[in-house]
Amino acid sequence: MPKRKGITVSRQIMDSQRSHPEATGELTGLLNDLIVAGKIISSEVNMAGLADILGQSGQINVQGEQVQKLDDFANLTIKRRMEQCGYVCIMGSEEDEGTIPVLDGYEGKYTLAFDPLDGSSNIDVNVSIGTIFSIHRRKSHGKQGELDDLLQKGREQVAAGYIIYGSSTMLVYTVGEGVQGFTLDPSVGEFFLSHPDIKIPERAKYYSINEAYSRYWYDSTTAYIEHLKDLDESGERSYSLRYIGSLVADFHRNLINGGVFVYPRDRKSPDKPGKLRLLYEAAPLAFLVEQAGGRAIDDQGRNILDVEPQDLHQRVPLIIGSKEEVNLAERFFTGKV
Ligand code: AHM
Ligand code: MG
Hints:
Blueprint: H1 9-18, H2 26-51, E1 56-60, E2 66-68, H3 69-82, E3 88-93, E4 100-101, E5 110-118, E6 129-137, H4 147-150, E7 157-165, E8 169-174, E9 179-185, E10 190-195, E11 206-208, H5 219-229, E12 240-241, H6 247-257, E13 259-263, H7 278-291, E14 295-297, E15 318-321, H8 323-333
Parallel strand pairs: 3-5, 11-12, 11-13
Antiparallel strand pairs: 1-2, 3-4, 5-6, 6-7, 7-8, 8-9, 9-10, 13-15, 14-15
């Protein structure tokens, strides 16, 4: 089906459902409900300063970090809407230690893993933040879903995406047929197709890494980043550094303009494989980047989509972005340079 700029996201989702005669409409329903949750969060994010909702709630989340009020709001908004949507059987959220059941009688055939508000350290300072989501088909046959339904490889995702609350609110998603980007027109409350068939530039303009941790980097990380900082053959500087500290915002910029984002493991916490979580941060973005022509690997050169999840909140070193730069990183990280 042709994708015309300006069509609504519901039209686009319906069109992609029509090209699959076997589809039951459940994924369409799920995405539509998730989008409503995203619009509610977007409106709350925009009101944050005014509504005096900013600031920390004082609670500590399962990752041991301070939970901020908007995180709570986003988490609750998604849980409340999706537990009764009838399309999911179990959920996992960055903010909840265990799995999240759905209401009795509303069990559906999909699972939902999400980071309700990624980039939480940026909430108070008006910097872009976002919601990341990952959808799988359930495997178990009981009534409620099980943890194992969530612990599936990224490769088996049915859909994934994010909503970024930035200078405008955008929804970027894939159902495995390319990547579509929509911009929210807040005056009518609709997402309109603004970025059809997004392709990430093959060469990166930017690299994104937290350089403050460089003293703890392993040699492979240092060598790779030093290589990026070197002048190219013509004596020019090839890259600029951009690091927002919201994965979703760093990823979005790199997706549109070309870039590579690196969050490696380091010497400070050798037992911790980086910071980012596989199920609701790395895997959904890996699905998107692959659909857009890019790549995502861990520091062993493994495709993120092939990493077997063992735990709901599992962390994974992440190298993601433009194909050529990820190929280059792979050579450094796997000792082939
Ligand atoms: P969060 O989910 O609690 O917001 O944490 C994840 C965030 C990512 O958005 C971002 O890329 C990373 O943490 C930044 O971490 P650091 O401050 O260590 O560079
Ligand atoms: Mg996060």
